[in-house]
Design brief:
29% of the residues lie in helices and 17% in strands. With 217 residues, it is an alpha/beta fold. Strands 2, 3, 4, 6, 7, 8 and 9 form a 7-stranded mixed beta sheet that branches. A two-stranded parallel ribbon has the order 1-5. α1 (58-67) links the parallel β2 (45-51) and β3 (71-74). α1 (58-67) packs parallel to α6 and α4 (110-128) packs across α5 (144-152).
Length: 217
């Protein structure tokens, strides 16, 4: 599983937002930013999150509708905008912050991290009509500057994961799903059959999927 990156990480080239947004007026401090790998709950629920990929598919939409699956989406604004009709047609989906350019944030100074996060929040709200309240760092890369940037952008929860479902495989520490698990997927071609396999496993183990927002304090 990913861990907080140190300041020596490297990444490939990318562009940064052209506007460095002002700090938010929401009273959040870096100490209030919580890093979560799972959800503390006694309910028999797990959380399905889907991050960036190439594109959502019709097959994936059919699986989501067939099983009425609530999905927490962490996608860059340009992916959501490109497939706006697809995304907004999903009834049980929330749209959260995953930065503008998918940069590894631990490589960046706080000013550029703030731009990646604040601008992404504004663009997601413009597309969906609702601001994100959760954040996931691309590649699981974050550091103390990320927490400072999140606080300045008014976001408290930094959401990681402890289960990965990808390309027909499910990687679980301990071999069995547990209540409160946060499951990572991506919008790729294999997402539909993988999600169908995952939802059947969730049900066999006496659990059900839930939205991450519904389990925030």
């Amino acid at each position: 599983l990913p861990a907080a990156a140190d300041d020596s990480s490297t990444t490939g080239p990318s562009t940064t937002p052209s506007t460095d947004p002002p700090a938010t007026t929401v009273p959040v401090t870096a100490r209030e930013v919580r890093v979560m790998y799972n959800v503390p709950t006694n309910d028999p629920v797990v959380v399905i999150t889907i991050d960036d990929g190439f594109s959502p598919t019709g097959a994936l939409a059919r699986v989501i509708r067939r099983y009425r699956i609530p999905v927490t989406t962490f996608a860059m604004p340009r992916l959501v905008k490109r497939h706006r009709k697809w995304f907004l047609a999903q009834e049980r989906m929330t749209f959260e912050n995953h930065t503008v350019n998918h940069r590894l944030l631990a490589d960046l100074p706080v000013r550029r991290q703030r731009a990646e996060i604040c601008v992404a929040s504004r663009r997601i709200e413009e597309i969906t009509g609702e601001p994100p309240i959760l954040f996931r760092p691309p590649g699981g890369s974050f550091n103390h500057r990320t927490k400072q940037a999140l606080a300045e952008c008014g976001i408290r929860p930094l959401e990681m994961w402890n289960v990965v479902a990808e390309k027909g495989r499910i990687r679980i520490n301990g071999g069995k799903l547990r209540r409160g698990d946060i499951i990572l997927m991506h919008y790729i071609d294999s997402a539909a059959p993988t999600l169908e396999m995952l939802i059947k496993l969730i049900r066999r183990q006496g659990l059900r999927p839930a939205l991450l927002r519904d389990y925030l304090e």
